[in-house]
Write a structure and sequence with these properties.
Strand content: under 5%
Shape: globular
Order of helices and strands: HHH
Distance between the termini: 8 Å
Oligomer: single chain
Number of strands: 0
Length: 92
């Protein structure tokens, strides 16, 4: 593997780690009443929602998981990011 490809993969892995930590923080804050109304909660929402939005739109388009108490697009995004990270780690 070339040096440039190694750097790109490491940067993508770093991005996945940062987004995963932000999503974990968002999930923890959602347990509290004022979670998303705080500055930290609003920041985490702004950082993570663009990553979740494509999967959320796909689920809404096909009517998947309507009426469930869990935010399934959020969960699928976490799982998808984990799989992408594992795949990229295997490439190193």
């Amino acid at each position: 593997m070339s040096g440039g490809m190694y750097i790109i993969i490491r940067c993508v892995l770093l991005f996945i780690d940062v987004v995963s930590i932000a999503m974990l923080g968002r999930a923890v804050l959602s347990w509290f009443t004022m979670g998303e109304q705080t500055k930290i909660g609003a920041f985490l929402y702004v950082v993570t929602e663009p990553i979740i939005l494509p999967i959320r739109n796909l689920c809404n388009r096909f009517g998947w998981f309507q009426g469930l108490p869990l935010d399934m697009p959020f969960l699928f995004t976490v799982v998808l990011l984990s799989f992408v990270g594992i795949f990229l780690q295997g490439m190193l």
